[in-house]
């Protein structure tokens, strides 16, 4: 198991980053929020989780150990694979996930692309006793309402790819009507990039 990766950032794409470690480029699948913190040519250290399948070996990179922990715990729920787990940590902070499960807030979980009402209920039922309380300073209770979290994710992703905050904000506004009830952060990021390339 690869617990973390430290090395120079060789490349950043829409969904992944390549870190050079001992002359080898390791591709880490990351959320837009994580990618936004990386700069090509600078050293980075990312906690990682490795998912091994018969036909693939994928490494996921995270902002911190808490995000990695949530990614791994939610996959122990039936029907939650690495893609849905990554979508959860992309849309919600670790404590938002804990609060939503503790408060049985189905609506908060269904904001994540790929999670329907039944899936959210199953996650709550299976993880309620294992997810633990929020570790931050906010009190336990119903999940705090999140104001369109996709906006911040897309904007952070664009800034991480080299656009200015002002340009990124305009691009986010330009694609806002495509968000719908279950925003796909990756698709919105690509749409925003198309908007910027036409400008």
UniProtKB/TrEMBL annotation:
The record's section on CDD domains has: UBA_RuvA_C
The record's InterPro entries line, in alphabetical order, gives: DNA_helicase_Holl-junc_RuvA_I, Hlx-hairpin-Hlx_DNA-bd_motif, NA-bd_OB-fold, RuvA, RuvA_2-like, RuvA_C, RuvA_C_sf
Molecular function terms from GO: DNA helicase activity; hydrolase activity
Protein biosynthesis: is it a keyword of this entry? no
Q: Residue ranges of region Domain III?
A: 147-199
| Keywords on record | Cytoplasm, DNA damage, DNA recombination, DNA repair, DNA-binding, Hydrolase
Q: Which domain of life is it from?
A: Bacteria
Q: Give the primary localization class.
A: cytoplasm
Helix-hairpin-helix DNA-binding motif class domain mapped to chain residues = 72-91, 107-126
Cellular compartment(s): Cytoplasm
Signal peptide residues are: none
Please report which protein family the annotation says this sequence is part of: Belongs to the RuvA family.
Q: How does it assemble?
A: Homotetramer. Forms an RuvA(8)-RuvB(12)-Holliday junction (HJ) complex. HJ DNA is sandwiched between 2 RuvA tetramers; dsDNA enters through RuvA and exits via RuvB. An RuvB hexamer assembles on each DNA strand where it exits the tetramer. Each RuvB hexamer is contacted by two RuvA subunits (via domain III) on 2 adjacent RuvB subunits; this complex drives branch migration. In the full resolvosome a probable DNA-RuvA(4)-RuvB(12)-RuvC(2) complex forms which resolves the HJ.
Q: Which HAMAP family match?
A: DNA_HJ_migration_RuvA (MF_00031)
Protein function? The RuvA-RuvB-RuvC complex processes Holliday junction (HJ) DNA during genetic recombination and DNA repair, while the RuvA-RuvB complex plays an important role in the rescue of blocked DNA replication forks via replication fork reversal (RFR). RuvA specifically binds to HJ cruciform DNA, conferring on it an open structure. The RuvB hexamer acts as an ATP-dependent pump, pulling dsDNA into and through the RuvAB complex. HJ branch migration allows RuvC to scan DNA until it finds its consensus sequence, where it cleaves and resolves the cruciform DNA.
Domain comment as written in the entry? Has three domains with a flexible linker between the domains II and III and assumes an 'L' shape. Domain III is highly mobile and contacts RuvB.
The protein, known as: Holliday junction branch migration complex subunit RuvA
Give the organism, scientific name: Nocardioides zeicaulis
Organism lineage: Bacteria, Bacillati, Actinomycetota, Actinomycetes, Propionibacteriales
């Amino acid at each position: 198991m690869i617990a973390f990766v430290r090395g120079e950032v060789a490349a950043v794409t829409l969904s992944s980053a390549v870190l050079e470690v001992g002359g080898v480029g390791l591709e880490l699948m990351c959320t837009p929020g994580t990618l936004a913190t990386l700069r090509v040519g600078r050293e980075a250290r990312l906690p990682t989780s490795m998912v091994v399948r018969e036909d693939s070996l994928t490494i996921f990179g995270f902002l911190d150990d808490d995000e990695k922990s949530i990614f791994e715990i939610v996959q122990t729920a039936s029907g939650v694979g690495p893609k849905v787990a990554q979508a959860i940590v992309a849309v919600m902070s670790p404590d938002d996930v804990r609060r939503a499960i503790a408060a049985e807030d189905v609506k908060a979980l269904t904001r994540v692309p790929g999670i329907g009402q039944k899936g959210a209920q199953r996650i709550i039922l299976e993880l309620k006793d294992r997810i633990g309380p929020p570790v931050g300073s906010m009190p336990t209770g119903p999940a705090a309402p999140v104001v369109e979290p996709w906006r911040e994710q897309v904007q952070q992703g664009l800034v991480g790819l080299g656009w200015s905050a002002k340009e990124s904000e305009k691009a986010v506004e330009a694609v806002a009507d495509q968000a719908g009830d279950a925003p796909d952060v990756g698709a919105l990021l690509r749409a925003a990039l198309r908007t910027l390339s036409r400008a």
